[in-house]
Amino acid sequence: MIKITNFLLCIFLTIFHLTAQTNYREGYILNNVGEKIKGFIDDRSWVVNPRQITFKKTLSQSKNTFYGVHDIQEFGFKTPDKEFIFVSRAVQTDISPYKLGELDQTAESLWMQDTVFLTLCVRGQRLSLLSLNDEKGKLHFFFEREEGKAEEFVNKMYYTDASKKQVIMHERFRRQLAKEMFDCNDILKNDLSEITYKLESLVYVFKKYNKFCNSRKAKNPDGSAAAPSFVYEENPNNLEINALTGLSMARPIFYFNGAPTADNFSNSYMPTLGVSLSLLIPKTEQQLYFYNELMYRSYHSSCSATNDVGTEKVYNLDYIRWNPMMRYRYPQNGVFKLFANAGFGVGKLIAHNTSLKDVRTGVVKTPWHPSYRPTEESFLFGMGAIYQKWSVELRYDMAFGAVDGNRIRTGFLILGYQLY
Asked: What CA–CA distance (Å, rounded) separates 392 from 287?
């Protein structure tokens, strides 16, 4: 058990080291004279908006070029499931404390002038939405009517007095939105009254405004309203379905009065097949999933009968297993995503064979253990990595077998491919 755990940990740390390496994505930069230059950008899966990026015109280029917030107007790149655009803007940012215990006692914001790369969330014909994750972990949202002039939405918490017992939320962003979208109040009235200071909520309203409400909205050739030219989808995949295949190595062990018996069953090497369904748990930054598997697994093992020379004990079991687990992924983006999962399994016995077999003649004798439990329970954990739509996992499973006193320890190598 300790050896398997150490092996899995070594694999996990090796993959983690790989994720720290450069990860170039095909993309572009827009320089300060408006020239768009195609090339490759080192995607660092930024938790905090970057101050500088690394750029190459070709992957074979040995020399890196670094661009900061004052060097370019914009850069963008695509991952297998998302597109990212960052724009350089000189903005006033609200640096007021936002964590409980650190709040001040005024509704007035504390502002700082800065030049940053903002994440483009919605690029509209008239009104755009941008965001910033700063070094202190604070999330800021900005709106922009004229390109290059972004203004922050204000959403500030503060204490009512020095006792720090009561907190008030100053949601000025609601008034700011109502003012900027005044020409659409009849259509957006309900949406604006229910809006929250969250990306999904703001993106929905900005998309709707730019497509249906803008008094100077762009038109498609057929006269219909044009959608925003770019929309960043924060959570495109709340549900994932994967096809699974792999190999299992199992060793059945039997116990009597707490001690292993003399039966020395052989290792069982068998293929396994299945399908998985992952559900993203909300508000976990795309990192925590409720992971479910439906798998076929089997054990085919045997040993020499200790009290009957020339006779072999056969121990073959086939199950359909349901494995509910919690899966944690890191990071959110990047060429590799690491994951660890743990949970339990419940199996339904669909076929079994515990016969005594004459080694010389092949004749099958009376079963050496005639009674079975219809279900199997297990505890399991595993670690692995995801590359684009492919995944690989090393897993350890400890099961209570179909026969009383039986424990089955299984190691799995599982390969997955994302279907949806």
From this structure: 17
Is 184 strand, coil or helix?
helix
Token couple for 248:
């299992």
pLDDT digits (tens, 9 = 90+) for 126-181: 889 999 999 998 999 999 987 778 999 999 999 998 888 899 999 999 999 999 99
Cα distance between residue 113 and residue 152, in whole Å: 12
Query: Does 246 lie in the same domain as 208?
Result: no
First to last CA, the chain: 35
Domain shared by 100 and 243, yes or no: no
Contact (Cβ atoms closer than 8 angstroms) between residue 402 and residue 372: yes
Of 231, 262, 285, the residue that ends a domain is 231
DSSP string, 123-170: E-SS-EEEEEE-TTS-EEEEEESSTT-EEEPP-EEEESSTT---EEEE
Give the integer Cα–Cα distance in Å for 43 and 24: 6
pTM tops 0.90: no
CA distance 182 to 197: 19
**Position 355, amino acid:** S
